[in-house]
């Protein structure tokens, strides 16, 4: 019986570490998206100051290619919309991971308590 509780505790601990790793990855993804959002909002702000006479260029590989101003603005708006959608998705993953981590913490504490009680019963019976 003791081995079974020990196995459950080890499994729960491994699961907990995996959940923490998933949370860490989601946090990193969220930070990258925040950086992309800021960058694209800055570009959008710059576009707002353009006159119809201004030319817009897009970096394609090592070459600057002339781009239609309206198309460039539309692309930035689409990118912003996509990034905001991804941020919402990642926020959901973060909440989900945090909930799972809390449940796993509780499970680990319960297993540790049960294991300690079992060990004290075994030592007092001996």
CATH second-level architecture: Orthogonal Bundle
What CATH calls the topology is: Helix Hairpins
Strand arrangement across the biggest beta sheet? 1-2
What is the top-level CATH class?
A: Mainly Alpha
For the record, give the distance between the C-alpha atoms at the N and C termini, rounded to a whole number: 16 Å
Helix content percent band: over 70%
Global morphology? rod-shaped
Helix tally equals: 2
State the secondary-structure class: mainly alpha
**Stretches where pLDDT falls below 50 for ≥5 residues?**
none
Tell me the total number of β-strands: 2
From the alpha-carbon coordinates, what is the Rg to the nearest angstrom?
Answer: 26 Å
Total separate domains? 1
Question: How would you describe this structure to a colleague?
Answer:
The protein has 126 residues and is mainly alpha-helical. It has one domain (2-121): Helix Hairpins. The chain is built from two helices and two strands, in the order αββα. It has helices at residues 2-48, 69-125; strands at residues 56-60, 63-67. Strands 1-2 form a two-stranded antiparallel ribbon. A hairpin with a 2-residue loop joins strand 1 and strand 2 (63-67). It is rod-shaped and about 90 Å long. The mean pLDDT is 93.
Protein traits:
two-stranded antiparallel sheet, chaperone, single chain, mainly alpha, Helix Hairpins
């Amino acid at each position: 019986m003791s081995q079974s509780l020990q196995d459950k505790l080890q499994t729960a601990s491994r699961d907990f570490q995996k959940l923490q790793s998933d949370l860490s990855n989601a946090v990193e993804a969220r930070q990258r998206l925040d950086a992309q959002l800021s960058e694209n909002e800055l570009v959008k702000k710059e576009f707002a100051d353009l006159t119809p006479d201004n030319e817009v260029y897009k970096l394609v590989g090592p070459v600057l290619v002339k781009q239609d101003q309206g198309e460039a603005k539309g692309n930035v708006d689409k990118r912003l919309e996509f990034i905001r959608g991804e941020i919402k998705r990642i926020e959901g993953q973060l909440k989900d991971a945090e909930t799972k981590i809390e449940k796993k913490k509780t499970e680990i504490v319960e297993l540790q308590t049960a294991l300690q009680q079992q060990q004290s019963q075994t030592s007092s019976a001996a």
